[in-house]
Amino acid sequence: MTVSPCRSKFFVEHKDLYHFLLSVQENCLTNDCQQIVSVSLDIDWVDPLVVLEKFSQANEINFYFENKGKGEAIAAIDAIAKLQIDGQDRFIQAEHFIKSCLKNIINFGNTNQPFAGTHFFCYFSFFHQKVQINYPFPSATIFLPRWQIAVKNQRCVLVNNIIISTRVNIKKIVQKLHTQLQIIESLQDYSPKLDFPAQFSKKPVTNSVHFKNSVVSALEKIQSNHLSKIVLADVLDVKSSNYFNLFKSLDNLRQIHPNCYIFSTSNGKGQNFIGASPERLISIHSQQLITDALAGSAPRGQTPAEDAANANRLLNSAKERHEHSLVIDFITQRLTQLGLLPQVSAPRLRQLSNIQHLWTPISAIVPANVHPLKIISQLHPTPAVAGAARDIACAEIRRYENFERGLYAAPLGWIDAEGNCEFIVGIRSALIDGDRARLYAGAGIVAGSDPDKEFAEVQLKLQALLKALV
Ligand SMILES: C=C(O[C@@H]1C=C(C(=O)O)C=C[C@H]1O)C(=O)O
């Protein structure tokens, strides 16, 4: 093959990449195949949210994940491979999809840095089947992005996943990467533009009477030993005079909730699902798994003394401890069934800006043959978002809630080629569709729950989210 001389600085600096891609293409010619290359480049620091705002297109899917406290943020834009499915075996199919893609991926560049190399982005719905036929997300989406930009510990990595076939023009591919890099570099001092405040109208879909009646009815079922816990959610519908500014909302969320996971995902059809969740479903780093049992809540106090009193009451409440222990028992049981040896830490407080929770991190070593999605399929939904016994609670949730949960309270995160992953539970979240938003939040109901207090807890969560959206 003839290689024309490349004179630009980029080609000189990246001649290794250029020659690497050419050799991959020659291999494709010989074997009559396609190959995916994950190109990882260290770049100067830039805010991934700003890159998302600049690069995302309404007709392309994307994903955003940030934990400000951990100094981590990752944006994934557009897909070069994607699986969108419904049905019960969605986790198994997702695992197969990832494994079969990985067989055809090679890496280029420095893959030792955090977030370098191939990452798959995944989001699932709470139930594997939807009742609301026109709900805008399928029950599982897994994609390999075209562009991925991430920061950790002040370092920044760009990943460009490229399909190499016999037909593509390697020079054009390298030029495109060069152009994108130049745009990204120009974004270092760019801040997203802010809209003028809009007028908002709010309409709760379930009124307080419906929610409280559901709690009363659920308590009767708990009393008669039909189940021991159920998590009931409520929604708040909001209409704005302007389109919601997604980036402003995400920026607000990360400022207000620096120790939560801020997330956003687009279906490529104009709808986005965003939120700020304190709950990690699983993270795995070098086979070390951590999952959060998070259940049992109290508001933050207005003064340090009130705050401490609320915290003390929460830590010492038999009702809250019972609600919490149902989650620990379920998680440890499920991990044990998978052959893992869960280690349970002492319960502590997870204090957020508006609310505090009982929190027990649980850790385990994951054998190399257990895929993260297998663990997720066993854990989701935990009693933190469904109830106990789980199947009964899920059936009752369908009966009580007169809206589709969709992506609310469901797993959402990334997996890399080595089986490292980070998945959260998509609570305190909103479905955004132009000038409309539907906000979701719930609360766990156990024996001793007070319908007024549970309603107040849900409202507290919804209002905190609403404040960030407007
Ligand atoms: C279901 C939600 O939160 C869950 C319910 C909690 C509770 O009732 O104490 C606490 C944390 C979460 O496990 C939600 O915020 O939507």
UniProtKB/TrEMBL annotation:
Similarity remark: Belongs to the isochorismate synthase family.
Domain Chorismate-utilising enzyme C-terminal, residue spans: 210-461
Keywords attached to this entry: Isomerase
Keyword Isomerase: yes
InterPro entries according to UniProt: ADC_synthase, Chorismate_C, IsoChor_synthase
Stored NCBIfam families: isochor_syn (TIGR00543)
Protease keyword on record: no
Documented EC number(s): 5.4.4.2
Catalytic activity: chorismate = isochorismate
Protein name: isochorismate synthase
GO molecular function: isochorismate synthase activity
